[in-house]
Design brief:
By secondary structure, this protein is mainly α. Helix content is 66%, strand content 0%. It has helices at 15-36, 42-51, 59-73, 80-93, 99-107, 112-126. Helix 1 runs antiparallel to helix 3 (59-73) and helix 3 (59-73) packs antiparallel against helix 4 (80-93). The protein is globular.
């Protein structure tokens, strides 16, 4: 039998931020789908998410989620210090002058799920001040 090194235990400190960003991403995706007339057509929406430039601004959120979750799964986010670069990245993504922040502000008055999800992300980010 071959001895293999033990797989590192997954870290979980990142999960609240990850889940909140996933909720925000989902809400923004649905808002963008409504805006582009793709709501209710999952196949066309998937194609748009993957290749339509109107959805390109959302890729930063999905890339963020994947990177953080993969790192956490490898056990490489054991504490707040290791999570700090992700917190900084998300703060930058949501900074007032960014496209994401402007779009969130534009749809929030008529899309409560976007407003609520964005507020949840901000609350979690504030915990790391």
């Amino acid at each position: 039998m071959i001895d293999r090194p033990a797989k590192p235990a997954a870290s979980t400190i990142h999960r609240p931020l990850s889940l909140a960003v996933m909720d925000l991403h989902r809400a923004l995706l649905h808002a963008q789908a409504r805006e582009t007339g793709l709501e209710g057509n999952p196949l066309r929406l998937l194609g748009a998410v993957m290749g339509d430039e109107r959805f390109a601004w959302l890729r930063a959120f999905s890339d963020f989620i994947v990177a953080m979750d993969e790192t956490g799964a490898r056990g490489e986010i054991p504490d707040a210090t290791a999570l700090a670069p992700y917190v900084t990245t998300m703060r930058g993504l949501l900074a007032p002058e960014t496209e994401a922040a402007l779009r969130i502000a534009a749809v929030s008055p008529t899309t409560p799920d976007v407003a609520e999800a964005a507020a949840r992300v901000q609350v979690i980010l504030a915990e790391f001040s």
